[in-house]
Amino acid sequence: MKDHIRQNQNFYQAELGEFPSDWPEATLNELNSGQSPALKAGPFGSSLTKDIYVKSGFKVYGQEQVIRGDLTYGNYFIDEKKYRELKSCAVTEGDILLSLVGTAGKLLVVNSSAKAGVINPRLIRFRFDSKKISSNFFKYMFESEIVQNHLETSAQGGTMAVLNAGMLKNLPIPLPVLPEQTTIANALSDVDALLTELENLIDKKQAIKTATMQQLLTGKTRLPQFATYTEGEKQGHKKGTKPSELGEIPEDWDVSTIADISLVPMQNGLFYEPARKGKGVPLINVSDMYTSAPISVESLELFNASKTELKAFKVNEGDLFFTRSSIVPNGIAFCNVLPKSDKKVVFDSHLIRVRVNPKIADYNYVYLNCLAKHSRLHLIANSKTATMTTIDQKAINCCPVLLPCKEEQTAIATILSDMDNEIQTLEQRLTKTRQIKQGMMQQLLTGRTRLPFKSLETEQDGGS
What we know:
This protein is 32% helix and 19% strand. Helix 6 (178-216) packs antiparallel against helix 13 and helix 10 crosses helix 13. The protein has a domain at 254-403: Adenine-n6-DNA-methyltransferase TaqI, Chain A, domain 2. The model is unreliable at 157-161 (pLDDT under 50). The radius of gyration is 29 Å and the shape is elongated. It has 13 helices and 27 strands.
């Protein structure tokens, strides 16, 4: 065995772009194994109807497995008789599945642990000669911008929604030698493994934060420094609970409302005119409410606000905002907060602003409380649904806030903020890793960067 890497290789102009001269092109149709066609569309819809499904048996693979990247997901099965009838649509190890809907060209490689089964009408199955092309190499090549841009250009109407087997069979793929394909696929697979690890870690941290919010913001779990009395006759004794309209709460907490803790009356924002965007001061609108927490001032679009509007709708650090409308009930009255900023910021009329009285409440605590279950249930229950879901100031004013002393509020907010910062750091790392992968794909799948790979040498070449 010997490491191979070709330096200073020549490039040639192929249909998909420039590639090394030792990467010849082959169409998907030419990569068939001789036993089965390279591309196979799923059966007609009438072949797989709900009335033929059984509780267990041979699995039916569809777009949900490809979208999730999980062959174990789903519970549609057919019996052995139907499986034999659809045997031409069966899957086996090394097959590659493409969903024709909703995945923008994402593929799923069938591994050895996959259950025997067939594809449904929304999938195309690729089955290639394993001596010509690696399934994993093909997956990365097909998902790359190189192929995706080519398909979008070729597709009727410029949309990936019209992908079909007839269109794909003549798709040309540049082919390095098989060991180099494997090396490229392994390098990208290692990055995918890191991405999955980061995604799982973020999900775990999010779940921990959600559980911690529910415990701390309801007083079910008290921070040690606030859990016992520190003076008086009860000094050293654990604090108890008391009944309230929200259930049992700590005996030293109160059920307050947004109106009770507001410094000034809540306010709707300025009227948004698209012609006035592009210059001026940062403007908070509905789309900014869901993208980050707290609101990212740097990412806000600019709006040419008048002097009167700047005075009336200028935002201060700690101002809370609620969305007035949403196309889904769970999106209504979604809360976000503005961090400290040196810039003048305004907000539009689709938002309601609340300014928290700092003598009564910590704005970060109130913001988090408005995302907690007891507040969200109230806000959703008091919204109105017609063509879209809306909420008025009265309903927000009545939103319940569980209020410990100011010091405990700040301590709770600090803990949850630290958890948010940890998650944000992981998300930034995830974004950077995704960017690294894109760069690697661009370099490795075009042959601009070549990796050493193992190849058998003949005895004449000195290998042994």
